[in-house]
Each structure stands twice: as C-alpha cells, then as structure tokens.
Design brief:
With 382 residues, the chain is an alpha/beta fold. It is built from eleven helices and 16 strands. The strands form two sheets. Strands 1, 2, 3, 4, 5, 14, 15 and 16 form an eight-stranded mixed β-sheet that branches. Strands 6-7-8-9-10-11-12-13 form an eight-stranded mixed β-sheet, with helices on both faces. The longest helix is centred in the middle third of the chain and has 23 residues.
Length: 382
C-alpha cells in the first residue's frame, strides 16, 4: 500500500477540496481524508503540494503521428476511401512515441486517441492510459466512438481524379446512404436474410452504434456543420459527441436544447482557415454559462498534448470559472467518454491516477512533482 500525506487535494467531485491524505491499494484509491493512518504502508510526504486526478485529453492523435518522422510515421488517416467504419486506431498507435512520455510528465494520464479527419468516417477511437509496456495493458476502452468528419477537411479536391465528396451536399448524402444501407443490412441479418457470402464488415461495425453502445464523435467547426451533425444524430436516435464546435456559440440555444456534449478544441490555435475565421477565445465561458457539458482538448499534434493545462489556463483568462476549467480537463471528459467510473476524479474505488503540482496547476511556472498511474509512480521530479 502507498500513503500520500499532507496534500491539498482537488478531488473534482462534490467534496472539491480536501486537506489531507490518500491511501492507495492495488492500484485503486482506498481512502481519502484529513488524517489517514496505515501502519506499514509506504509513505510519501506531499509537503502541502496540490493534488489532482490525472488530466484527460478527450480528443487527440497521440501515437498515430510520430514526432519528427513525417509521412512514414503518419497513420492518422486512410485516404484511399471516404467510409472507413471498419478501421480501428488501435492498429496504428505507436505507444513508444515520445508524446506519451511528454503527456504523463505534464500530468496527462488518459487519452482518447482518434483517427484523423480526412475521411468522412475515419474509424473507431480508443481510450488509453499514457504509460505501459503494451497497448492491451494501457487500454481503458476499445471502440470508444465512431469518428465522423463534416466540413472542408474531407472533401476530395483533386481535379485530376475527381471523386465524391467534393461538397457538403455529397458528404451528408454519403453519410445518410451509408447509415441507411447499414440499417437495412443489419435488419436483414437479424431476420436471417444475410449469409456469409454477403458479409459486409463496414455495415457490421454499425451495430453497436445503432444500439447506442458506441457514440458518434463528429468533428465540425462551422455552425452549419454542427447543425448537420446534430440532425444526423437525431435522425437515427444516436448518442452524439461534437468535436471542435468552433462556431457553437452561434447556435448556443440549439446546443442547449439538444443536451449536447462538446469536445472543444484545439483551443490554442489561430484563425488560419475558413472554418476557424469566427473562433472566439471566450467560447468555453459561453458554453459554461449555459451549463453545456464540454471539455477542452488539444487535437494533438495541432496543440502539443503537454499543453492541455495551458488550454484551461487561457480559458480562465477569457472568463471561464477556475474550478470549471479544471473540470474541463478531468471529470468532464471522463463523463463525456463514459469512463467516469474509473477516472476523472479522486474518489474511493477509482483508479489511482494522480498528479501532484508544486503550485497552481494553471500557471506556467508550476511543475509536475509526481505522476501516478494505477497507483504506481511513473514520473517524479523531486
């Protein structure tokens, strides 16, 4: 057992702040309190440093695009086809990419790794811890979401080899056609009309989507694309998460009405494209004021994963409540991703994924003193 003593514990649950200790056993939090005693346990004095749950990046591409490698190390997108529901990012992740180390050294312990946005349907994401010797050891949740893109990124604009989609009209038509064909296929399979000779892997993968066991994670910047995403989800009664949501503030009432869950990011970016021209630094505060469930993401490598806490800091600078900013990189992504039974807050029974800071977590001068994952110290800086 491991006993962490004398910390200022920001739990991210209803207790919010506890001055005291955390007892860890078998990788789980066994007890949190003001004066925990456990004779024989290994004890570490935290010296009144700030203790938080490990940070969570809800949308990134860590391990899919390797640092300093270029095309050979870029496995974000399968550009040969527009519909890739059968693909899984698990087959492309390199867990030895340096970005994993940079993540846990900055306090990020959980990632939702997603395919890129060059295809209409890029494939299935997975959720994993940032440290381990094998992908199987690190994974929290396989097939976490089916990733869809609506907007400019997935248009096929090669005039030498013209093919769909070349417009938003084509993107939505292809999505609806695929969903309808998948639905019809699965209905026929259920009634015994589909045999092995007619097996379709892409349609098969939609079964868990229609059963609401796997959400759609739809990337959309512009208001019109966000509306198309919500319409698609509503049409088929599906669980839907909106990525980017750059112009979400323009349709804020619709987001509220739809009880939307938002992966907001990349937050530390510019207005370098048509889809980003209307971005606002104040959008986290705008969403927060309407009690919309959202989290902040890096979209690594667009923003390096180790700057996740800085995304929250800039959001605070632009009006977001401090505690809500911390929740936007801890418990909120855990809830949106459906993993809050294990991570996102410091509570008895949850994974002991813990980060210790020597100051305010949202100040650039603050250092990570220690990172624990599943109760083991994987990084220390003291």
């Amino acid at each position: 057992m491991l006993l962490l003593k004398n910390g200022k514990i920001l739990t991210m649950d209803e207790k919010q702040v506890v001055y005291g200790d955390i007892l860890i056993e078998n990788g789980k939090i066994k007890e949190i309190g003001g004066a925990v005693d456990c004779p024989g346990a290994e004890t570490i004095d935290l010296k009144n440093n700030i203790v938080m749950p490990g940070l969570i990046d809800g949308y990134c591409h860590v391990g899919l695009i390797e640092n300093g490698v270029g095309f050979p190390g870029d496995d974000m997108n399968e550009n040969s086809e527009s519909i890739n529901s059968q693909l899984s990012v698990e087959d492309g992740i390199n867990i030895r990419d340096i970005s994993f180390k940079e993540a846990y050294q900055s306090g990020v312990t959980t990632l939702s790794v997603c395919p890129g946005n060059k295809s209409i349907i890029g494939g299935k994401s997975c959720i994993l811890k940032t440290y381990g010797n094998s992908l199987d050891e690190m994974i929290i949740k396989r097939n976490a979401a089916l990733n869809i893109s609506i907007g400019d990124s997935c248009k096929k604009l090669d005039d030498k080899n013209p093919e769909m989609p070349r417009s938003r009209m084509a993107i939505m038509d292809m999505l609806r056609s695929f969903f309808e064909n998948s639905k019809n296929y699965l209905e026929k399979k259920s009634s015994g009309e589909i045999d092995y000779s007619k097996y379709n892997k892409k349609y098969e993968e939609m079964d868990t989507v229609f059963k609401k066991e796997m959400p759609l994670q739809i990337s959309a910047h512009k208001a019109q694309d966000i509306q198309s995403a919500m319409k698609l989800g509503k049409m088929y009664g599906l669980n839907t998460i909106i990525n980017y949501c750059t112009e979400g503030y323009m349709i804020i009432d619709q987001l509220v009405k739809a009880n939307s869950h938002i992966m907001l990011g990349p937050y530390l970016t510019d207005k370098s494209s048509n889809e980003l021209i209307n971005r606002k630094d104040e959008i986290p505060n705008i969403l927060s004021q309407r009690d919309i469930m959202f989290c902040l993401t890096t979209d690594h490598p667009e923003v390096p994963v180790q700057l996740l806490s800085m995304c929250a800091a800039v959001a605070v600078k632009n009006g977001l409540d401090y505690l809500r900013a911390l929740k936007a990189i801890t418990i909120n992504p855990a809830r949106i991703l459906g993993i809050d039974d294990r991570v996102g807050s410091l509570e008895v029974g949850k994974d002991a994924d813990i980060v210790v800071f020597d100051g305010d977590p949202l100040k650039t001068s603050t250092n990570v003193v220690m990172t624990l994952l599943n109760g083991s110290i994987i990084y220390k800086n003291y």
